[in-house]
UniProtKB/TrEMBL annotation:
This is Methylated-DNA--protein-cysteine methyltransferase. It comes from Paraburkholderia metrosideri. InterPro entries: MethylDNA_cys_MeTrfase_DNA-bd (IPR014048), MethylDNA_cys_MeTrfase_DNAb (IPR036217), MethylG_MeTrfase_N (IPR008332), MGMT (IPR023546), MGMT_N_sf (IPR036631), WH-like_DNA-bd_sf (IPR036388). The active site is at C130 (nucleophile). The lineage of its organism: Bacteria, Pseudomonadati, Pseudomonadota, Betaproteobacteria, Burkholderiales. Residues 165-195 have a biased composition (Low complexity).
Length: 204
């Protein structure tokens, strides 16, 4: 089936939602680099059910009423990239992981730089939460959507219940289809999170 897209306005700019058939294939940023995520030619299709559902769930997320997504996902990439992107889906709402944590989780502790590269090419932003991956020292590091948006998303997940409050805490801007999995179903918002690593996610 033809790849189709729908544009939606959001607190982090205009997002381009892309579907492959009935699955979500990408969420691209307003100023995304053209070659960051490689997709076949896409056509506009505002009525594709998966795109409408994605927009609905994203709006709930931005409103502070959703902390998990329930969407069928379709990732295209190398086997290594898919392992990294699958690991992103396990990072709980409101928590962060380092690149080293992700490398350990996928069983390749020496692949920290490669994990960073794969994280940067994550096609399904926000839903596969690459914004929850930070430097070992706690630095936000690079982000395809820009560091202001990264801080916005982390602030929103850190117990903020309004877009205005999250925006106030955002830092100034710094310079063959294969499905990995399904995002977890929605549940009520959690209390303010810890930023620590849960060892249970890494082999226990």
């Amino acid at each position: 089936m033809t790849y189709a897209y729908r544009l939606m306005n959001s607190p982090v700019g205009e997002l381009k939602l892309v579907a492959n058939g009935s699955r979500l294939a990408a969420i691209l940023w307003e100023n995304d680099k053209p070659n960051r995520v490689r997709l076949p030619e896409v056509v506009a299709a505002d009525n594709r059910p998966i795109l409408l559902e994605t927009e609905r769930q994203l709006n709930e997320y931005f409103a502070g009423t959703r902390d998990r997504f329930d969407l069928e996902l379709d990732f295209r990439g190398t086997d290594f990239q898919k392992k990294v992107w699958a690991a992103l889906l396990t990072i709980p709402f409101g928590e962060t992981r380092s690149y080293s944590d992700i490398a350990t989780q996928i069983g390749n502790i020496n692949a920290v730089r490669a994990v960073g590269a794969a994280n940067g090419r994550n096609p399904i932003s926000i839903v596969a939460p690459c914004h929850r991956v930070i430097g070992a020292s706690g630095d936000l590091t690079g982000f395809a959507g820009g560091l202001t948006n990264k801080m916005f998303l982390l602030s929103l997940e850190a117990g903020q219940t309004s877009l205005e409050a999250a925006a106030d805490s955002a830092a100034p801007s710094a310079t063959a289809p294969e499905t990995i999995g399904r995002a977890a179903p929605a549940k009520s918002p959690r209390p303010a999170p810890s930023r620590g690593t849960q060892t249970s996610l890494f082999g226990n």
